[in-house]
Design goal:
By secondary structure, this protein is mostly helical. The chain folds into two domains: about 70 residues, no CATH class; about 50 residues, no CATH class. It has eight helices and no strands.
């Protein structure tokens, strides 16, 4: 069948691809948009994250976003949490990745890369804020 659709060179390459030794279960390859139609966005996420991630992660993320947006808190807090979860806070790591600052290191403690997790929870300079909750 491959030979009838593709030229000799392409069919040889296709047939030379190794098959998985694992028995895999069929699954949806993309999570459809809310209206059930395939979009470029859903195709992008499939290419970026893969089938298994999309199917298992999508349901969990829908619940997470629902919890965040339905919280009884100021809109600024919801927006901050949403941006933190999406990885879009302006930490040195993100700014360095975008060539906006010279170093990804934490300016407060100098201990490694200033990730979102580090900036909010791990930096020694913010631990005092969380101590009452421990």
């Amino acid at each position: 069948m491959v030979g009838s659709i593709f030229n000799d060179e392409d069919s040889g390459r296709i047939l030379a691809l190794p098959l998985s030794i694992n028995q895999t279960v069929d699954c949806e390859f993309w999570r459809p948009s809310p209206n059930g139609v395939y979009t470029m966005k859903s195709g992008y996420w499939l290419a970026k994250l893969g089938c298994n991630y999309m199917n298992s992660h999508a349901e969990q993320m829908d619940k997470t976003w629902g919890r965040i947006w339905n919280m009884d808190s100021p809109p600024k807090m919801k927006h901050f949490l949403w941006r933190a979860c999406k990885g879009s806070l302006a930490t040195n790591e993100r700014l360095h990745y975008r060539h906006i600052c010279d170093s990804p290191d934490c300016k407060l403690c100098g201990a490694g890369s200033e990730t979102i997790t580090h900036a909010i929870f791990e930096c020694p300079n913010v631990r005092d804020i969380w101590d009452p909750f421990r």
